[in-house]
Amino acid sequence: MNRTMRAIIPIAVAAIVWMLPVPDGLTVNAMRYLGIFLAVILGLILEPLPNSAVGMIGVVLCGTLMLVPAAGGKAPTAGQSLGWTLSGFVDGTVWLIFVAYMFAMGYEKTGLGKRIALLLMKSLGGKALGLGFATAIADLVLAPFIPSNTARSAGTVYPVVKNIPPMYGSLPENEPRKIGAYLMWICIATTSVTSSMFFTGLAPNLLALGLIAKAPGAEGLAPIEWMDWFWCMLPAGVVLFLLVPILTYIIYPPTQKDFGETPKWAARELEKLGAITRKELLMILMATIALVLWIFGKRIFVGFSNATLVALIVLCLMVITDVISWDDVVANKSAWNTLVWFATLVAMASGLARVGFLSWLTQQCAAQLQGYSVMGVMFGLLCLWYFAHYFFASLTAHTTALMPVLLAAGAAVQGMDVRLLGMMFAGCLGIMGILTPYGTGPSPVYYNTGYIEKKTFWIFGSVYGFVFFAVYAIGALYWFPVILK
Questions:
Q1: How far is Cα 317 from Cα 478, in angstroms, rounded to an integer?
Q2: What DSSP line would sit under 82-148, residue for residue?
Q3: Are residues 102 and 77 both part of a single domain?
């Protein structure tokens, strides 16, 4: 599909929605807003323009047309409409995502990420199963601090791992099953798991938390914090993390089992890096400070209770200690691009509630879901949320499009804990990325290496996707309520 068609389709959808009869309970402005919102989601999927540009166009258009009412449902003034248009840029979650990109840059610039991966290869890389676990642990160690699994897996782990198969003559066109296919699958499956284990392991996790706080029925509920997420995900996360290398070794084993050259190669690469540097030590210190304050901040000082403020404090320390420079911060296009993208999406998602669409949807769903148990509705919505990802090439687009709608549907059920339902949705954002070769950022990198046959990639995506979902759903339905009570 050419770029012109990819631009026409979202515009056509918006125009069609604008011309539809307005349902009882909705306003004309709400229907117009819905049309633009759907056009933005389609724009994120079809990408006629960069995603951040699509979000910016959508939110500016809604602000210019003054579609979003002011407090109390009154018609907005020009100033109030501008305030809503820019509201996403003062959202703490958006800035937490931005700062986490700076953490990722710190790992890359100092070389600490590469050193960690090589140390693991040196220690565990002599046997096939150990090599698989070394690859997985490298991703796990970086996951709490790097919210882009593309930067973490495709940008840090893959550049190290890709050097191993050619050492043993395992190439995409020659004996890929010797070791290459095994390692590539472990890389993509592991990063899907670690992306769900920590709320700072994947940017859309943070976006989801922001949307949960704005959901119908969530007013006044305590926010989900770093440790809440960690304890919720710990049982399923540990099981899935251990399962990936072991299950892959069983059903997709490498044809060679011993890899004595790998530790030697890793040792030579470490020699090239030399002794650990001052900046690497400082990066370790910065990461430790962030983690400690995220976990124990409330007990140390009330000012440390906010995860975004902690991240901003650590960013300032990174600049002061020259782990990264301010020029590095300014020049990080990916971080600024993501900030604009997520800020506009947060505003667009919040607008669904402001125009009355979510309250209207809640009323419609209430009639349809009467008589069903809370547990049954939770499981049904979780299934819909998870497997709908087959139709999305972006976890961010998936989150923005479906989370406000499904949370509103769940809120219609008497006795539903919206905070718990939201955590159930948010917690599986990472693992659902395994379903397809386009399901998450690093997937195309490993899919296009050629080590894994395309048919096999699809089959394994479904198999692992169902296994991941089964393990996760048990934890979500029976363990999450214990943590979030």
A1: 41
A2: HHHHTGGGG-HHHHHHHHHHHHHHHHHHHTHHHHHHHHHHHHHTTBHHHHHHHHHHHHHHHTTT---
A3: no
380's tokens:
């049904």
Q: How many domains does the chain have?
A: 2
Please give the angle made by the CA atoms of 431, 139 and 148, to the nearest 5 degrees.
65
Measure the CA–CA gap between 89 and 84, rounded to whole angstroms. Answer: 10
Q: Give the domain-ending residue among 35, 57, 85.
A: 85
Do 289 and 207 lie in one domain? The reply is yes
Query: Do 1 and 134 fall within a single domain?
Result: no
What are the φ/ψ torsions at residue 421 (nearest 5 degrees)?
Answer: -60, -40
Chain segment 229-275, per-residue pLDDT in tens:
999 999 999 999 999 999 999 999 999 898 888 889 889 999 998 99
Query: Residue 152 belongs to what domain range?
Result: 93-333
Asked whether 194 and 145 are in contact (CB, 8 A), the reply is: no
Contact status, residue 240 vs residue 234, Cβ threshold 8 Å: no
CA angle 39, 148, 219 (to 5 degrees): 60
CA angle 310, 442, 195 (to 5 degrees): 40
Closest CA to 452 of 188, 193, 195, 133: 188
Q: DSSP letter at 384?
A: H
Strand, coil or helix: what is 174? strand
- In a 3-state reduction of DSSP, which class is residue 243? helix
Residue range 273-294: average pLDDT?
88
In a domain, 235, yes or no: yes
The tokens for 142 are 């970086």
d(CA 206, CA 430) in angstroms, rounded, equals 12
Tokens of 70: 């002011």
Pair 344, 59: CB distance under 8 Å:
yes
DSSP code per residue over 263-274: HHHHHHHHHHH-
7 and 145 in a single domain? The answer is: no
- The HSE-up count of residue 452 (CA atoms within 13 Å, CB side) is 27
pLDDT digits (tens, 9 = 90+) for 183-239: 999 999 999 999 999 988 998 998 899 889 888 877 777 888 888 999 999 999 999
Nearest to residue 96, comparing CAs of 311, 280, 291, 262?
311
